[in-house]
Amino acid sequence: MMIKAPYLLYLGSTADPMAIKTSRGIAMFRPEDAIGEFVREGGALSLGLPQMGFAEAAAAGARTLILGIANAGGTLSDELIDDCEAALDANLDIASGLHSRLRDEPRLVAAAKRNGRRLFDVRDVGSDLRVGNGLPRAGRRMLTVGTDCSVGKMVTTLHLERAMRARGIAADFRATGQTGILIAGSGVPLDAVIADFISGAIEQLSPAREDGGWDLIEGQGSLFHPSFAGVSTGLLHGAQPDAIVICHDPTRPHMRGLPHYPLPSLADTIEANLRVGRLTNPDVIAVGIALNTSSLEREEALALCRRTAEETGLPATDPVAFGVEEIIDRMEECFGESLQSNLRSA
């Protein structure tokens, strides 16, 4: 998409920490490109970056304002439109992963034209999508799945990519959401794909590979979330994962946005994802649990990881706090020949 860095990350006035996960993800995994953050007066959240106005950011070298927020329905509110127009007038491009398209807002199109700036809609889907066929294909694939939405699937996948590459293992992150696409520079915005093409889109995103390497596919939604289980199902079928890693926030009281739906157990989550995944890969296995323990004290978090490992028989860790080496160790145990061939060829 040729989105130009450095970036100014938009936080606006949101007070929901989960609503700024796109900005947070970019700040975490592309810190060299995050020049600052824009927070409206009275805004309660910060990523610890320098807070800048649009003109100030442009003067400091920023090229693009990233609308790194998510709201219900992914809409462009009046507040967002006002801020985007001001950013365009300050000579910044705009990149958005919201469902509402920048190009469909006349004020923004006019502002981009008069300032010679560009609008990037990250959730645009290509026109060459195919219906999935479920045929076996070469290569190894890992998919992160979750007990709920927004429990760390992207973060876990990116940490696995970094750690596997550090070991000399060929591994590539495959983005399926707006944040991942902005970090990786490519991918498929799966929640914008017509339902018939979801599995086929993932087959195209992660085609056969003959180098013995791994595609690490970013998960979306949850099989247990009534709003998004359809996307999760198609993703499992298209990914044909050899391995799944289950992501979980142990402090969450209910499914995100649905207080009348409790979170499933880890055991039920593992069983359900393996059952659905076996349609296109009968040999899929679970290789680890990724816990988000950010709200727990270190000793409490370590104890939870140990307890979870004992209960599930799988390595359990917080990828951010404690790394993912135990999960890669388990992958090596289960797929040792594949991993060792990668090491020899590195």
TrEMBL record:
<feature type="domain" description="D-glutamate N-acetyltransferase-like N-terminal">
    <location>
        <begin position="47"/>
        <end position="124"/>
    </location>
</feature>
<feature type="domain" description="D-glutamate N-acetyltransferase-like C-terminal">
    <location>
        <begin position="132"/>
        <end position="327"/>
    </location>
</feature>
<dbReference type="InterPro" id="IPR035402">
    <property type="entry name" value="DgcN-like_N"/>
</dbReference>
<dbReference type="Pfam" id="PF17396">
    <property type="entry name" value="DUF1611_N"/>
</dbReference>
<dbReference type="InterPro" id="IPR011669">
    <property type="entry name" value="DgcN-like"/>
</dbReference>
<dbReference type="Pfam" id="PF07755">
    <property type="entry name" value="DUF1611"/>
</dbReference>
<dbReference type="InterPro" id="IPR027417">
    <property type="entry name" value="P-loop_NTPase"/>
</dbReference>
<dbReference type="InterPro" id="IPR035086">
    <property type="entry name" value="DgcN-like_C"/>
</dbReference>
<protein>
    <submittedName>
        <fullName>DUF1611 domain-containing protein</fullName>
    </submittedName>
</protein>
